[in-house]
Design a protein that fits this description.
Largest sheet: 8 strands, mixed
Bound molecules: S-adenosylmethionine
Order of helices and strands: EHHEEHEEEHHHEHEHHEEHEHHEE
CATH superfamily of one domain: Vaccinia Virus protein VP39
Strand content: 15-25%
CATH topology of one domain: Rossmann fold
Strand order of the largest sheet: 6-9-8-7-10-11-13-12
Radius of gyration: 20 Å
Structural class: alpha/beta
Mean pLDDT: 82
Number of helices: 12
Helix content: 25-40%
């Protein structure tokens, strides 16, 4: 098991992260060996140590020794790497037992629920904010429950090829980054997250969504499968426009049927480009629009926008040209796409 962590001396690290009371989930197994990424540092923390920490209450000395700087997770406010106190590893039991803290802005983050909340508003007591309807819709418990129980299957009527084929198509694009860390952004109920995690292709899979209820659904499906509970798999709540990951830290980013739901696709793709490593691959799918068949497409509304200013629509649909332009404007290269009726799978790569 590869652990993407750097152990820091306890004396240099903050000591106020809370120790987690008990472990609800089984301890992680060592898992199958994964291909190592070229040039990636050797293991700094042993999987055996993680298993020992998970099995026994920590002594004071062990607690101090397990304060680490994370290589991937970063503060959503200032993008500094988060300090972590607890057992290492990108897996649900270890993350549930860990506290995370930004040493720059002192903000703490925990997995109070089954997911690690890395939104800017994590822990706020009075402040709350409404996102656009296309984000808020998916926070509903009912929509989250129905999503994988009929809602998603409906997409096939617009040309989506179905989960198995979509997964294989994405895996083809991700071949150059096999063995790396994959981020499944806007994962919904985790239908692709589970496939990526089970494939054994990646050293870790991080499922990310803004919807608390989608992440709960995600966990409901994961816990039905012991191999997934013990896999190198994490659930993170975050806003796509403010990704809580260090720049150049992630190898692969998948965004299934999501870009049309994002509040600002340009901020989101810029963030995706920031967190990808050089050579990292982004793959997205969405519904294509054309001015002829969609009265609410960005292109169709452009003349209206020139007259009345911003026009609010429920979803943002794009043409092939717009998606390519957006990826390129965020610095991604080697753009390619596959189209079937309104379905498009598109991909771009962070230059070396
Ligand atoms: C149509 S679902 C796609 C789910 C899954 N990826 C798939 O392929 O079916 C869109 C997802 O985007 C998420 N989403 C919407 N706004 C978001 C935001 N601002 N940040 C992160 N995720 C967001 C929703 O919560 C929802 O789970």
């Amino acid at each position: 098991m590869e652990l993407q962590l750097l152990v820091r001396p306890a004396a240099t690290a903050p000591s106020s992260a809370r120790a987690r009371p008990s472990l609800r989930l089984p301890a992680p197994a060592a898992g199958p060996s994964r291909p190592r990424r070229p040039g990636f540092p050797t293991l700094r923390a042993a999987a055996a140590a993680a298993a020992a920490i998970a099995a026994e209450p920590e002594t004071k000395e062990q607690q101090q020794n397990s304060i680490m700087e994370t290589e991937v997770f970063a503060c959503p406010v200032c993008y500094e790497p988060l300090m972590r106190k607890g057992p290492p590893g990108i897996n649900l039991p270890a993350i549930y037992r860990s506290g995370f803290k930004c040493s720059k802005c002192n903000k703490s983050f925990t997995s109070k629920d089954i997911f690690l909340d890395l939104t800017v508003t994590a822990g706020t007591k009075e402040y709350s904010e409404q996102k656009p309807a296309r984000t808020e819709l998916f926070r509903s418990p009912l929509v989250s429950f129905l999503y994988e129980r009929g809602w998603r299957q409906n997409f096939n009527r617009s040309g989506f090829p179905g989960l198995d084929e979509e997964f294989e198509m994405a895996q083809d694009y991700f071949q150059p980054v096999a063995g790396g860390i994959l981020l499944d952004v806007s994962c919904g109920s985790g239908l692709f997250t589970r496939k990526f995690a089970k494939s054994g292709t990646y050293s870790a899979v991080i499922a990310l969504d803004f919807s608390e209820n989608m992440l709960r659904q995600c966990y409901e499906f994961i816990k039905q499968d012991d191999t997934l509970l013990n896999a190198n798999l994490a659930l993170v709540r975050a806003d796509i426009s403010r990704l809580p990951f260090a720049s150049c830290s992630v190898d692969a980013i998948h965004a299934g049927a999501a870009i049309h739901c994002w509040p600002s696709p340009s901020n989101a793709v810029a963030e995706i480009s920031r967190v990808l490593r050089p050579g990292g691959v982004f793959v997205g799918t969405t519904f294509l629009s054309s001015p002829r068949n969609n009265p609410f497409s960005v292109e169709a509304l452009r003349p209206l926008r020139q007259i009345v200013g911003p026009v609010n629509t429920s979803y943002n649909y794009f043409t092939e040209g717009e998606l390519e332009d957006l990826c390129k404007s965020c610095g991604l290269v080697n753009y390619s796409s596959k189209v079937q009726r309104s379905f498009i799978m598109f991909s771009g790569q962070k230059p070396y």
